């Protein structure tokens, strides 16, 4: 292995590298999905894998998502570690029955005798000008399904580390890849033994004392930007990147909110019945007497994801986050 | 007499002396795709129909080229072209009566336009100003359907409903070779056959589902062979032979209208362009293969037939081209105008009446836009 | 029509009556699903409809839930009002893509030109000793899907009124029928012109001043019982039956909590990512300064629904509700 | 050589000179269900096999009766009986090697028991103390599968994985006639054929899906005809003829093991009992139909053959009955013991490691149970 200089890599490249390293490390790892082989996936995340490991290890399947996940269940029953690609968020819906009724329940059903180490990669979220059904944020469905881990990276390094950890997990992981961060770059040395991030730990991306922004995936960079902008208003915002929605890192989140006394949950997914409700509720349960204001939510509207030309109105941006921070009852302070 | 009675009362499960419920033989497709152009059958084809098909094919080809060009100019977000598949697109629209319904897949804007929908409205989804631009009821065209094969049960349900109401309506549903692998394909065909619904399923087997070739999609003798497993006839047709596609689809529509139930038609064709403008087809197929299919081009096949029989001359060809250019110019001009957008549309059609929650959110966005407009010194468009 | 005395009827009977009246009133109403015809449904809710209205109006479909809902979409496109039965909660999962990608979005997709007046009846919840996949509480999935109404009755009268309203709605309604209340009885005069309840209004089932129990469906009777039991502890509990999860009746709920200053959300569905998070979060947003304690949740555990012999440990019962009420920081009072 | 290479390199889409990818003729099922008993083929059948089948059938029938009785005594929550279908249940288990896998539907506890799983463990789901009672790896039997047809893709994936690993393993998956309407049936068969996975699909066509008769389920000539649409052979067999079912399934297993790919077998049988003990079959079918099928009972058919050929006498019949009674008595006794329950099981197997959230919930329940036990003056079991 030759040493290369640390250079910027995209999140997509880090994901490819994670798949490649996982396949090299463990012959049980199999990649499967629509167009993942010859084409390398519509986002090129599986680029080169079929060539390097052969079509038996990186397989173009027929076009049927329930079939893909259902056969992956059988493969996992026989000891393989399938990594399944769903081409877009909304195209995972045909596989819901397999996901909810089997993937999430097989270990429990068999009292631990038949675990299913399946990783389900789902490119999710909007902001890429996709037409209908190409921009859904479907994490609420996965969060509400016991038996699944739900993981989503926001940085290039986490994309690598969390995907490795997900593939290594003996339980099924829904691995949500924020589409619009695929081409985001970061200085990251792909030749360094990259850390395999443990699943279930949130991270404080930016410390601050005024209020906590609780967020994940595609909204992390937006929150970082908002935190920068907030300085002009005199607010010093802390940004917590959840990284894993299930398990949920109550410890890190609660510690932050107890410190700041105020919190806003930020995500692209719709607000009603979305992840923010759960997060706000549990933060409030745990930090009630530390809260100066109710935990607020900045989220997508409760509408089907809009068409490309209108999506900017839907996505939670810096202004909306700052508006919410402004409503955190600062007068209570004085 | 109800529809349920019409299709025969409940018969008990076959007793030990077993009888097939339907004779499979007539359901099986022929071994060779049906062809008209360049065969003896061509002599019987109506010259007017052939000329009309030709004009539509030429226009269709030009439409594909124009739409692809619009993606380069940023006027369309994306365009899945049907270059090479125009015979199927055009014939699917032409075989239907006004009262019939067309159920297109995401790729079939050309069929939608050929059915009479305004080309700009047909492209709304792909331009990105809204999901569906046209009123489905106006030309009886369902919205372009992005989740593959999910439109097929809709077509079955609509055709069944029409029959229950006593209306003489046929639904024609389009799907790709890849789409046949989805569970919805199976369930739709089964419901259609059990209900004897007046539906025609047109599978455009264009060789690929994005990068995945047919050989990785199915091991069946042909996709048309799937029909027998539902108890409906399967028909195999050369999808680049406009006259053949028109004839086979017309027969299937007539059969459905007469109460004969559904038909599955597989049209063998080829996607000459990449999957969409965003796709790089060289990653998964060679030029040689594409060239083979250019030889078997639907326009060329029909042109050869028409000129050979003296039904078309240089002037006719030129006239068709001119027509197509006029259409393209008009499309270009219309698409160069900016879409008219109303952000309030986000909230206004989620329910018949917005929920209290949506009213709050709408007010929030309106306030934001007003503030934005004010700070820009302008007014809210 | 002859006048009959008011006599006890079961919820199942009220539902049958609602279907029958709706079919009689509007020839566009069609009932369809597995075993709904000759058998009258596995819960007998469609009993007699095929006989009275013919098999074309009450149809035994092939066994395929996506096909049932998908063909219902097409029927609705042509002007019918399909009422679809999903045999059990978990057997609605195969229809999720049709539900999320089409049923919930068709009106919006077509800017109102193609509404889909479909009612999807889903027997849900546990407590009936059902084997795996027969006791799921899947309302979180439906709540997180904009474009759907989500309605669930808790009384015999509401079963009638809300089902009539759902069928009359021009929008799709997921109508959740609490399985274990099918045989619950109430004095109800089926011959009286029964009220068609408007969708979206919660109702205060019991007024009280100490704290509010916010609940719906199968947990309503449990909360009523808990409220009775609470009197012994000196608590006077208010019980709000939501009846409709979407739209959500913020007005009624917030008014109650502002009055009592304390609230517990009670439902059978799992807690994490379940309806309670949304409810607690929005109540807190609206009533923060009236709250003496964080809004608490009593819910099913975050596990796949247990087998019959263990379900009593899972279901939120009177004791757990009273425990939660006890944790509402009454010391703050003094 | 990889499995992918084995099944032939990628061939370009059929060029204009079209060739069916597979010859459909050998895939089509015979017009009549295959029969052995009472036909000439019976003479070739191995007497030992016939006697073994007979013993199993008699035991199976008794098992069904016993399990149904246990529902009446409240010892089982519910039981879907396979009375009348024992030939299929028993043969499915008997044709497999130790290393093979069985994928049962929710109805197939008898096949699971015939494969060697402890009868009490096989009934755990239906007794209600847990979802699956046995270790699937011990006898290579997947959990009884409640959501219809969802087990079929599992079988395909497992068989494919075994093949990729170079293991000589076949999977046999069972499904009902109703289950064939589900999308998962379609997707599973298609994947199996494309991958040439060593799977055998056994459809028990028992005439009904709860109350819905086959005529409302499909319009196909037979369910076996569905095979051709996937490019796999379809076989039709008399499901009450144990020798025939055994032979057809054995052939299919051998074919799969030899790398020949999947087979779809339709066994025509009849569900003599109601759907489950909770069902009232008189609502949807008449006694006359049931009686017809009692004439064609699998035990009777085989008994007639064996006694006719002098392979079985009164003593043999009595011995088989005794064996069955012994099994039933043992089952009764075991099932009369209370299940051992541990409420902590609720939390311990959701994940390899319980999440912090689940640990909290487990502690809560433990505390509740301790309080309960204390107030009852007992201790927590
Ligand atoms: C349910 C679903 N899964 C995946 C996709 C992504 N996708 C869009 S087009 C396509 C290939 C479709 O192939 P085919 O059905 O042959 O139609 P064609 O593109 O050739 O017209 C895929 C996989 C989708 N739109 N819907
Ligand atoms: C996905 C799904 N939908 C519905 C059901 C409810 N259900 C249980 S058994 C049954 C009928 C099954 O019929 P068939 O497949 O013919 O099998 P059989 O009962 O005859 O063995 C139904 C509808 C289910 N278990 N799973
Ligand atoms: Mg294609
Ligand atoms: Mg059956």
TrEMBL record, chains A, C:
<protein>
    <recommendedName>
        <fullName>3-methyl-2-oxobutanoate dehydrogenase (2-methylpropanoyl-transferring)</fullName>
        <ecNumber>1.2.4.4</ecNumber>
    </recommendedName>
</protein>
<dbReference type="Pfam" id="PF02780">
    <property type="entry name" value="Transketolase_C"/>
</dbReference>
<keyword id="KW-0560">Oxidoreductase</keyword>
<dbReference type="InterPro" id="IPR009014">
    <property type="entry name" value="Transketo_C/PFOR_II"/>
</dbReference>
<dbReference type="InterPro" id="IPR033248">
    <property type="entry name" value="Transketolase_C"/>
</dbReference>
<dbReference type="InterPro" id="IPR005475">
    <property type="entry name" value="Transketolase-like_Pyr-bd"/>
</dbReference>
<dbReference type="InterPro" id="IPR029061">
    <property type="entry name" value="THDP-binding"/>
</dbReference>
<feature type="domain" description="Transketolase-like pyrimidine-binding">
    <location>
        <begin position="9"/>
        <end position="184"/>
    </location>
</feature>
<dbReference type="Pfam" id="PF02779">
    <property type="entry name" value="Transket_pyr"/>
</dbReference>
TrEMBL record, chains B, D:
<feature type="region of interest" description="Disordered">
    <location>
        <begin position="1"/>
        <end position="26"/>
    </location>
</feature>
<dbReference type="InterPro" id="IPR050771">
    <property type="entry name" value="Alpha-ketoacid_DH_E1_comp"/>
</dbReference>
<keyword id="KW-0560">Oxidoreductase</keyword>
<dbReference type="Pfam" id="PF00676">
    <property type="entry name" value="E1_dh"/>
</dbReference>
<dbReference type="InterPro" id="IPR001017">
    <property type="entry name" value="DH_E1"/>
</dbReference>
<dbReference type="InterPro" id="IPR017596">
    <property type="entry name" value="PdhA/BkdA"/>
</dbReference>
<dbReference type="InterPro" id="IPR029061">
    <property type="entry name" value="THDP-binding"/>
</dbReference>
<keyword id="KW-0670">Pyruvate</keyword>
<feature type="domain" description="Dehydrogenase E1 component">
    <location>
        <begin position="63"/>
        <end position="326"/>
    </location>
</feature>
<feature type="region of interest" description="Disordered">
    <location>
        <begin position="361"/>
        <end position="381"/>
    </location>
</feature>
<keyword id="KW-0786">Thiamine pyrophosphate</keyword>
<protein>
    <submittedName>
        <fullName>Pyruvate dehydrogenase (Acetyl-transferring) E1 component subunit alpha</fullName>
    </submittedName>
</protein>
């Amino acid at each position: 292995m030759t040493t290369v200089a640390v250079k910027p890599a995209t999140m997509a490249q880090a994901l490819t590298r994670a798949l490649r390293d996982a396949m090299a490390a463990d012959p049980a790892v199999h990649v499967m999905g629509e167009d993942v082989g010859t084409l390398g996936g519509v986002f090129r995340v599986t680029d080169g894998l079929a060539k390097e490991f052969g079509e038996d290890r990186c397989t173009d399947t027929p076009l049927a998502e329930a079939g893909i996940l259902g056969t992956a269940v059988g493969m996992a029953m026989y000891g393989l570690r399938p990594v399944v690609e769903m081409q877009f968020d909304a195209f995972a819906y045909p596989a819901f029955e397999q996901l909810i009724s089997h993937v999430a329940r097989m270990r429990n059903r068999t009292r631990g005798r038949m675990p299913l180490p399946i990783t389900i990669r789902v490119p999710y979220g909007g902001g890429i000008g996709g037409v209908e059904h190409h921009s859904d944020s479907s994490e609420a469905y996965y969060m509400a399904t016991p038996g699944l881990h739900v993981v989503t990276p926001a940085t290039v390094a986490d994309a690598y580390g969390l995907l490795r950890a997900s593939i290594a997990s003996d339980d099924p992981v829904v691995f949500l890849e924020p589409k619009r961060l695929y081409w985001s770059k970061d200085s990251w040395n792909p030749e360094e033994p990259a850390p395999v991030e443990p699943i279930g730990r949130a991270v404080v991306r930016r410390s601050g004392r005024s209020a906590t922004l609780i967020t994940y995936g595609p909204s992390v960079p937006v929150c970082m930007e908002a935190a920068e902008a907030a300085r002009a208003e005199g607010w010093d915002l802390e940004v917590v990147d959840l990284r894993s929605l299930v398990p949920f890192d109550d410890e890190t989140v609660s510690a932050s909110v107890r410190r700041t006394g105020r919190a806003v949950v930020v995500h692209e997914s719709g607000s009603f019945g979305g992840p923010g409700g759960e997060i706000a509720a549990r933060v409030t349960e745990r930090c009630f007497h530390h809260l100066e204001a109710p935990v607020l939510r900045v989220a997508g509207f409760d509408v089907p994801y809009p068409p490309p030309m209108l999506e900017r109105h839907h996505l939670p941006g810096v202004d909306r986050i700052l508006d919410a921070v402004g409503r955190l009852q600062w007068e209570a302070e004085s | 007499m109800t529809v349920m009675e019409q299709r025969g009362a409940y018969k008990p499960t076959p007793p030990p002396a077993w009888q097939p419920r339907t004779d499979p033989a007539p359901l099986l497709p022929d071994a060779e795709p049906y062809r008209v152009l360049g065969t003896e059958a061509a002599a019987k084809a109506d010259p007017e129909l052939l000329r009309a098909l030709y004009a539509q094919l030429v226009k269709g080809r030009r439409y594909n080229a124009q739409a692809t060009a619009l993606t380069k100019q940023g006027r369309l977000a994306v365009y899945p072209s049907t270059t090479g598949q125009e015979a199927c697109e055009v014939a699917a629209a032409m075989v239907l009566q006004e009262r019939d319904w067309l159920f297109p897949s995401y790729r079939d804007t050309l069929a939608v336009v050929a059915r009479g929908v305004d080309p700009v409205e047909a492209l709304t989804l792909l331009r990105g100003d809204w999901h569906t631009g046209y009123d489905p009821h106006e030309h009886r065209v369902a919205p372009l359907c992005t989740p593959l094969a999910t439109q097929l049960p809709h077509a079955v349900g609509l055709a069944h409903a029409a029959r229950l109401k006593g209306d003489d309506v046929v639904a024609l549903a389009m799907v790709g070779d890849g789409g046949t692998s989805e569970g919805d394909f199976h369930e739709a065909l089964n419901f259609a056959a059990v209900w004897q619904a007046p539906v025609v399923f047109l599978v455009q087997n264009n060789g690929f589902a994005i990068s995945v070739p047919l050989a990785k999609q199915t091991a069946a003798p042909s996709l048309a062979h799937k029909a027998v497993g539902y108890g409906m006839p399967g028909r195999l047709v050369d999808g680049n032979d406009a006259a053949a596609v028109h004839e086979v689809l017309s027969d299937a529509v007539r059969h459905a209208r007469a109460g004969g139930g559904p038909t599955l038609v597989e049209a063998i064709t080829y996607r000459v362009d990449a999957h969409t403008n965003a796709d790089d087809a060289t990653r998964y197929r060679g030029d040689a293969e594409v060239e083979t299919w250019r030889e078997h081009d639907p326009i060329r096949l029909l042109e050869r037939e028409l000129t050979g029989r003296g039904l078309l001359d240089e002037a006719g060809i030129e006239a068709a081209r001119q027509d197509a250019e006029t259409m393209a110019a008009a499309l270009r001009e219309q698409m160069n105008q900016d879409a008219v957008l109303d952000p309030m549309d986000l909230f206004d059609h989620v329910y018949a009446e917005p929920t209290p929650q949506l009213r709050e959110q709408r007010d929030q966005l309106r306030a934001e836009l007003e503030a934005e407009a004010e700070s820009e010194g302008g007014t809210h468009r």
